[in-house]
Amino acid sequence: MKGIFHALMQANPLAKKERERYPDPHRFMVQANEALTHCLERSSFITAAFYLIDYQAGGFSFARAGHCHTLYYHSIKEEVSYFRTEGLGLGIIRDAGYEKHVKTQFWDYNPGDVMVIYTDGIVEARDGEGNEYGEDRLLQMLEACFYQSADEINAHIRHDVQEFSQGQPLHDDQTLLVIKFKAAQPHT
């Protein structure tokens, strides 16, 4: 179900129009929750994360709806940590009360900061003994390779997850997005 929401948000012209109409991540999540209330099975819900990067301001805003916590390398502090933010999955509360269960967070970034957004298939990957890859190991991987390019970090983490899994079958999708902030960002 999770991959379906992502595909809808990227490919659907209506979703693009909604993103333009509701650029605040909180408002977007509230509107998405309302829309999904009418089409999701009663026992289903969807996780999502919505980020808006403002290159001119050197920061970003985001909201989380039950999705995995974002992993972040702070270049000034030289430390890796998770954004432990609140956010209830879309479709869990199917009325106006949902609004108080998701909020927009703001973060200033610095050149060299790294943001890792992923699906739970990454941290829930299992080895031959049934052990999970886990958030701690993912954090350690970013600590080991934060200085590399975004593509290299992505490849490094994916390779480690594959080695850890030892060919075990996937139990969930594995999506991994790595963003490395630079001093000069593209003009939009």
What's the topology here?
Elements: H1 2-11, H2 13-21, H3 25-37, E1 48-54, E2 59-65, E3 71-74, E4 79-82, E5 105-108, E6 114-118, H4 120-123, H5 134-145, H6 150-165, E7 176-180
Antiparallel strand pairs: 1-2, 2-5, 3-4, 3-6, 6-7
Helix pairs in contact: 1-2, 5-6
Describe this structure in words.
- This protein has 188 residues and is α+β, with helices and mostly antiparallel strands.
- It has one domain: Phosphatase 2c, domain 1.
- The protein contains six helices and seven strands, in the order αααββββββαααβ.
- It has helices at residues 2-11, 13-21, 25-37, 120-123, 134-145, 150-165, and strands spanning 48-54, 59-65, 71-74, 79-82, 105-108, 114-118, 176-180.
- The strands form two sheets. It has a four-stranded antiparallel β-sheet with strand order 4-3-6-7. A three-stranded antiparallel β-sheet has the order 1-2-5.
- Residues 1-11 have low confidence and may be disordered.
The N- to C-terminal Cα distance equals: 31 Å
Give the % helix: 25-40%
Computed Rg: 17 Å
* Overall body shape: flat
Helix-strand pattern: HHHEEEEEEHHHE
The number of E-state strands comes to 7
Q: Identify the CATH architecture.
A: 4-Layer Sandwich
Q: What is the CATH class name?
A: Alpha Beta
Fraction of residues in β-strands: 15-25%
**Count of runs of 4 or more consecutive helical residues:** 6
- CATH topology, what is it called? Phosphatase 2c, domain 1
What's the structural domain tally?
1
What structural category characterises the helix and strand content? alpha+beta
